[in-house]
Amino acid sequence: MILKGKKILLGVTGSIAAYKACDVAREFIKAGASVRVVMSEAAKRFVTPLTFEALTREGVLHEGTESWANELNHIDITQWADVFVIAPASANTINKLAKGIADNLLLQCALAFDKPILIAPAANTKMIENHQTKNSIKMLEVSDMIVIKSQSKLLACGDEGNGALAEPKEIYWQTLKTLLKDDFWSDRRVVVTSGGTIEKIDDVRFISNFSSGKMGHAVATALYLLGADVCLITTKQTKNIPNEIYTIDVEDAKEMQGYLTDAIRVAKKGVMSKPSINNPDSIGMIQKEPYLFMVAAVADYKAKYPQVGKMKKDTTTKELAIEFELNDDILGSLDKQGIKTIGFKAEMDAKAGLKNAKEALKVKGVDAICYNLLEDSNSFGSDENAITFITKESEINLEKKEKLFLAFDILCEAKKLGD
């Protein structure tokens, strides 16, 4: 489990969205984390402490339970936790946090906490858009607190606009990113391609392959969680990945090649660092060698003469001849100078597959190949995978597991290629 051994303190304030904190706690627990909860008195009007005790199997800290005979107090519980997540954070809590006010147990925990704090605002649109609240949010960000943006949607009060709590999954992703940050990948620009390209025959028909994009999306997600600056170029919908991953949607190989060339050029320029309250002069360019993970399954062929509109069915014959031509070899033709490149190769030939993958390492001129032996077409779209990570010096077998966990294993090997 990805959060095994991690300790999370979840703060719940008096917002109508307090019930969603139950889903946030559940996400953390499913991932293996130990979770404890601190509630403001206002939060108890929306959700009872008993609900969180049932979910976490831990006592909940609030005015009625604080004790100095055990760890259920605002000092010991903050020393226990690795990260403090306040979700939802009401407008009242946000404004008090920015001013250093600590007139309830939750705010006392925040003032005593010297590790990462994440804040997920939730309030009525007028309250969250009030200049005082907006200024407070900016102050918290400058103070190195991580603010998880609220959503614009229909609110419980009936108003429509900004103020809805971020989705529990997004709060989960942001917390993972804070806990899993890796110095090697942090602020390193990485480009990932994903999915199978779609090559038009006419405006309603195309040829493609069975690639689901799940492996590429898993690699992009793992990189994001480790702190990389990720650009994902994909042909597939991105429903189950963090919202902050910069995504470019493409269809065919030509479009992918164009965006990929531009993305690599940008990646080689480095990343602009952010100033902090502790080091306001820290802004500047961070130069780390970028990476490319070419996970996309680019169609080998495309229609030589794609038709405009819809081709009409010819009832005089039972055959249809379409002339195809080879697509450009995107990975083979890329300028790889100044960028570490990892290709992905799927094979169905158990005897020659490994040999073909090793040959691709030379022909494509890449630093590594992730070789995937498929059983049949049903292998596409599965939630698990196994990979052989091949370089000029070694072959590392990465055992079959859930694709996100496999992505972390791939990144461990890819890390060895870098500076």
- Strand proportion: 15-25%
Low-pLDDT parts are none
Count of beta strands: 21
Helix content: 25-40%
Shape, principal axes of CA atoms: elongated
Instruction: Specify the CATH architecture of the largest domain.
Output: 3-Layer(aba) Sandwich
The biggest beta sheet is recorded as: 8 strands, mixed
Spatial order of the strands forming the largest sheet: 12-11-8-15-18-19-20-21
CATH fold call of the largest domain: Rossmann fold
Number of domains: 2
* Chain-averaged pLDDT: 91
Distance between the termini: 29 Å
Counting H and I runs of at least 4 residues, what is the number of helices? 13
Rg calc: 25 Å
For this structure, what is the CATH class of the largest domain? Alpha Beta
The named CATH superfamily of the largest domain = CoaB-like
Q: What class do helices, strands and sheet pairing give? A: alpha/beta
Question: Tags for this entry?
Answer:
five-stranded parallel β-sheet; 419 residues; 2 domains; Rossmann fold; 13 helices
Question: Would you give an account of this structure?
Answer:
With 419 residues, this protein is α/β, with parallel strands linked by helices. It folds into two domains: 172 residues, Rossmann fold; 234 residues, 3-Layer(aba) Sandwich (Rossmann fold). β9 and β10 form a beta hairpin. The radius of gyration is 25 Å and the shape is elongated.
Please give a quick description of this structure:
With 419 residues, the chain is of the alpha/beta class. It has helices at 20-30, 49-56, 76-80, 91-99, 105-112, 125-129, 131-142, 168-180, 214-225, 253-267, 330-333, 353-364, 403-415; strands spanning 7-12, 34-39, 83-89, 117-121, 146-147, 151-154, 160-164, 189-194, 199-200, 206-207, 229-234, 246-249, 271-272, 285-286, 291-294, 301-303, 324-326, 340-347, 368-373, 384-390, 395-402.
